[in-house]
Design brief:
Elements (H helix, E strand, L loop, with lengths): L5 H9 L10 H15 L3 H14 L4 H14 L2 H14 L4 H26 L11 H21 L7 H11 L39 H13 L6 E7 L4 E7 L6 H15 L5 E8 L2 E9 H7 L2 H6 L5 H6 L1 E4 L19
Parallel strand pairs: 2-3
Antiparallel strand pairs: 1-2, 3-4, 4-5
Helix pairs in contact: 1-2, 2-3, 2-4, 3-4, 4-5, 5-6, 9-10
Length: 341
């Protein structure tokens, strides 16, 4: 059954693509209102509405789907997976739910891999992937050598190979001892009064809140385009992050911004949207948004299979650009299955 009349049609459009075919008409408005609350970030109120719908209609698949979307937007991936599974048990043909489950599986496996790399202290970033096997082998060889030397020199004090290696690694030109100066040639340096450092003319990153500085450092270190990033600001009310980055004369503002946004969305799973600001010659040259929902769509196998071009995801995920550009068919590629930001 489909809604009829202006009010019902409005509710159906607000449901963001949820399948309503099997839902009794009196529940349409509640589901649409719950989804609008979700899109505004009012997750607790949206969740309560969905639970009220389920109490009235326990086999309402779209209500479970919407609970999954709420958990997904909050970054609670395992909870979202549970609700999507419940929805599919009632309505096995749900494509939205299966797409989201693929995205969740991809992100969980990627998070697990990143955690392992961080615990091992391995380098991060695409340019260092080829070094990882060699580095693991080298670490294993060092540990093995240290064990052999420790067993063969049982009477040697426990200053050990590890402490010697640490001393060698930490020695730098600033810490190496300097040769003694002959008294006959030593000349005392004239003391001069210290001049106070001039006050900074503009604010520096250290003036920003700790949360913003942390985001800036994480994205700078982990994004292939991190060297362009000069500022990051988070709004905890709307779950949005604004990234400001510097552009060269001929650099692609959209491509650089998309890489920065991708890293931020992958590192901060509760963020709903990234706003990009590209700066060229000390002026704002580019502004755009990257909603998490659109970026999540590009991670599904159905998207990558239908859009094999390496940068197809950028044209789809980046929205609301300024200056506006000529519409590109790739902005909504046929294989994406999405309807908008």
């Amino acid at each position: 059954m489909t809604p009829s009349g202006g009010k019902a049609d409005s509710a159906a459009r607000a449901s963001d693509g949820l399948s309503q075919d099997a839902v009794p008409e009196p529940l349409h408005a509640d589901l649409a209102r719950a989804n609008l609350l979700r899109m505004r970030g009012e997750f607790d109120a949206a969740k309560q509405l969905c639970q009220d719908v389920i109490q009235r209609e326990p086999r309402c698949a779209p209500a479970y789907t919407l609970l999954g979307d709420i958990a997904f937007d909050r970054g609670s991936l395992e909870e979202a997976s549970h609700f999507y599974d419940l929805s599919l048990e009632i309505e096995p043909s749900g494509t939205h739910e299966r797409t989201r489950l693929e995205v969740i599986q991809h992100r969980l496996s990627k998070t697990e891999s990143a955690t392992t790399v961080e615990q091992l202290g391995l380098p991060v970033g695409r340019e260092s992937r080829w070094r990882t096997p060699a580095l693991i082998g080298a670490v294993a060889a060092i540990v093995f050598t240290a064990l052999v030397l420790g067993m063969s020199q049982g009477t040697r004090p426990k200053s050990s190979v590890a402490s010697v290696a640490t001393e060698r690694v930490s020695a730098t030109p600033d810490t190496l001892p300097t040769p003694p100066t002959s008294p006959s040639t030593a000349k005392p340096e004239p003391s001069t009064p210290e001049k106070p450092a001039p006050a900074a003319a503009t604010a520096s990153p250290s003036d920003s809140p700790l949360e913003d500085r942390t985001i800036l450092q994480v994205v700078q270190q982990r994004s292939p385009a991190g060297s362009h990033l000069i500022g990051a600001t988070q709004d905890p009310r709307t779950k949005m992050i604004q990234l400001t980055y510097r552009l060269g004369a001929e650099e692609d503002a959209r491509a650089i911004g998309a890489e920065l946004a991708r890293t931020a969305l992958e590192q901060y799973t509760d963020v709903l949207m990234i706003t990009l600001r590209g700066v060229r010659d000390d002026r704002i040259a580019y502004v755009a948004d990257v909603p998490r929902t659109r970026y999540a769509d590009t991670l599904a196998d159905t998207f990558t299979q239908g859009n094999p071009e390496p940068n197809a995801w950028i044209a789809y995920a980046v929205t609301n650009e300024w200056p506006s550009r000529t519409p590109d068919p790739r902005d909504n590629p046929p294989g994406s299955g999405a309807k908008g930001p």
